[in-house]
Structure formats: structure tokens, C-alpha cells
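Quick one, C-alpha cells below:
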């Protein structure tokens, strides 16, 4: 019965997230916006690359490394920012957090469901971005050569890990006023810098590389890059060439499990403190 209730909460929280994200305009305009936004964002990075190197073909391996990493990073940025903003909206704008909290359901599963809606919407953006790269920029992703088993396994584990981190930050946002956006942007920026999103971690100082190797997003991006373009030697520039695919998946699995446990602890502690201090229904938009 408890499992059924949790799944029902997950289902309706996901549906609610979709409604909040898409009901501000017509379905057609929302689809156009969802397609144009990720492409416009990646074009900024592409133009920076072209200004520096002059041509995509001058270093196709590095360009593929940068483009794929930037596209996949959308998951990290959107889930981290989206989840903290969800609780901010429910508490400050809609002022419904107290009602949601008192409803006969798991509040934790509600937050996870809202994260799932973010993941679904972002998945479409990532797909469109990668498709644009293949069609317009000759990124060498061949659907027949993709290592599907490793891709699917790593994608599922990585999304669970990202969701867990987002839930932890959502818990922290229950204790903050209007600063939750800055917190998640700072965390997302740390990942962008240290996890080899657009440049190999070998560019970083040796001491800083140890930080990169401690963050599971680093391994997640590496295994997804290898799975999408397995035959161009992309691992040769990443700084993780000594790890096999299986080792990367195991590292990702262990670190994701650790993140999940820590996330639940942080969320429960933040939940307790928010109730203790009366912050669940406190309006702070002064």
C-alpha cells in the first residue's frame, strides 16, 4: 500500500510539474520555445569556440567533447535550479506549500516527482541539442554505433544522482529566504568548472583534479561521451583514459548511492528544522 501511495504521489507531482512548466502559453508556442532555447544556448558556446579556433573541423575530437558535455550538462543545471525554485514558488508565490505539506502523502516523493517533470522536459531539450549538433555541426554521433547498454545504465544512474542532489538543495531552500537561486547556481557553477563539461579536467591544477575525481558528475559525463561517440578516441583527452567503461559505471554507481543517502539525510534534517522554526509557510519576499 505504501509503495502504491508513493507511486501515485510521484505520478501526480510529475503531472503538476508539467502543468506549471507548460500552461503559461499555447502548446505550439511552448514546443517552439522548448526547441529554440537549448539551441540558442549552445550557439553561444559554439561561437566562442569558432572565435578561438576558427573552424569546427580543426579539432573534431575536442569539439565533440565540448559540445556533448555542454548538452548533457543541461540536466544538471535545469534540475538543480528547477527544484529549489519549485519550493520557492510553492511557498512564496502560490503560497500552497503548507497545504501540500499537510496532504496525506510523502512530501519527499512530491519533491522527487517535481524533479522528474524537470528531467522529462530537459530530456527533450538535450535530444534537440544533440540532433542539431549532428545535422548542423557534424558531431559524429551514429545511432548504429552508440554503446546503448552503457549509455542507458549510466543515464539512469546519473539522473538518479542529479535528482538526489537537487532534492538535497531543495531541502536547504526550505531554510533560506530568497537566496536559494544563488545557492543552486553556485553549486551548478562548481560542477561546470570541475567536472570536465567543456574542457578536460587535465587543464586544472593537479590539486584541483582531485576535487573533480570526487564528484560523480565527472564520471557520468565521461561514460556518456564514450557511449555516444565510441570510436573517435574521446577518452584520450578527458583525463580519465585509465578507467574502463565498467570501472566508470561502478564508480558512478557507488558515488550516486552515497549522494542518495546524503541527500535523504540533508532533506530530512532540513525538513525537521523548517518545521521547528516555522519556516514552511513563512513569506520572505520582502
Amino acid at each position: 500500500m505504501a509503495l502504491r501511495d508513493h507511486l501515485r504521489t510521484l505520478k501526480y507531482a510529475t503531472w503538476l510539474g508539467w502543468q506549471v512548466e507548460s500552461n503559461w502559453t499555447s502548446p505550439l508556442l511552448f514546443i517552439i520555445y522548448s526547441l529554440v532555447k537549448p539551441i540558442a544556448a549552445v550557439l553561444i558556446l559554439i561561437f566562442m569556440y569558432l572565435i578561438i579556433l576558427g573552424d569546427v573541423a580543426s579539432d573534431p575530437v575536442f569539439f565533440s567533447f565540448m559540445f556533448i558535455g555542454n548538452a548533457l550538462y543541461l540536466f544538471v543545471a535545469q534540475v538543480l535550479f528547477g527544484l529549489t525554485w519549485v519550493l520557492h514558488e510553492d511557498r512564496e508565490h502560490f503560497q500552497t506549500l503548507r497545504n501540500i505539506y499537510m496532504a496525506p502523502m510523502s512530501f519527499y516523493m512530491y519533491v522527487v516527482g517535481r524533479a522528474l517533470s524537470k528531467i522529462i522536459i530537459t530530456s527533450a531539450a538535450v535530444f534537440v541539442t544533440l540532433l542539431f549538433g549532428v545535422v548542423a555541426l557534424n558531431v559524429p554521433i551514429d545511432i548504429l554505433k552508440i554503446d546503448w547498454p552503457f549509455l542507458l545504465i549510466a543515464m539512469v544512474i546519473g539522473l538518479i544522482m542529479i535528482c538526489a542532489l537537487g532534492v538535497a538543495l531543495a531541502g536547504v531552500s526550505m531554510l533560506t529566504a530568497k537566496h536559494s537561486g544563488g545557492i543552486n547556481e553556485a553549486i551548478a557553477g562548481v560542477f561546470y568548472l570541475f567536472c570536465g563539461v567543456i574542457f578536460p579536467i587535465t587543464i586544472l591544477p593537479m590539486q584541483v583534479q582531485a576535487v573533480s575525481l570526487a564528484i560523480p558528475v565527472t564520471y557520468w559525463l565521461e561514460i556518456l561521451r564514450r557511449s555516444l561517440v565510441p570510436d573517435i578516441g574521446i577518452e584520450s583527452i578527458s583525463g580519465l583514459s585509465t578507467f574502463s567503461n565498467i570501472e566508470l559505471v561502478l564508480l558512478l554507481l557507488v558515488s550516486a548511492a552515497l549522494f542518495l543517502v546524503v541527500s535523504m539525510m540533508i532533506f530530512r534534517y532540513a525538513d525537521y528544522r523548517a518545521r521547528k522554526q516555522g519556516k514552511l509557510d513563512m513569506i520572505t519576499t520582502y
